[in-house]
């Protein structure tokens, strides 16, 4: 299973043009680095047809990819540090934090 692609990010965000490809690529790379820095796991454990464990790079795991997509979406939609008006600092969504915690604590990742 391949790692996350720019095309997957653009589909998730419903972005049709190529005008922001450089930004999205940078945000995708940053999101992967951010999540990688918060977790110590690098591989996802699955089982093959015989029930034996197999180890795949975490970048190919759908849950990891979803966390990256959500984080990129958050950064793409909230490009400022502060929200205009009420000056509330933007935070990473609870969903991304929950996925990161799950990956870090679940036995399906090593």
TrEMBL record:
It holds the Pfam family Phage_connect_1. Signal peptide: none annotated. NCBIfam families: put_DNA_pack (TIGR01560). This is Phage gp6-like head-tail connector protein. It comes from Cloacibacillus porcorum.
């Amino acid at each position: 299973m391949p790692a996350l692609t720019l095309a997957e990010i653009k589909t998730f965000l419903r972005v049709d043009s190529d005008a922001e490809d450089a930004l999205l690529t940078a945000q995708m790379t940053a999101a992967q680095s951010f999540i990688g820095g918060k977790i110590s796991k690098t591989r996802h454990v699955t089982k093959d047809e015989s029930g034996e464990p197999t180890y795949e790079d975490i970048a190919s795991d759908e849950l990891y990819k979803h966390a990256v997509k959500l984080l990129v979406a958050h950064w793409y939609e909230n490009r400022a540090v502060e929200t205009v008006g009420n000056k509330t600092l933007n935070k990473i969504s609870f969903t991304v934090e929950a996925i990161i915690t799950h990956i870090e604590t679940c036995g399906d990742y090593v």
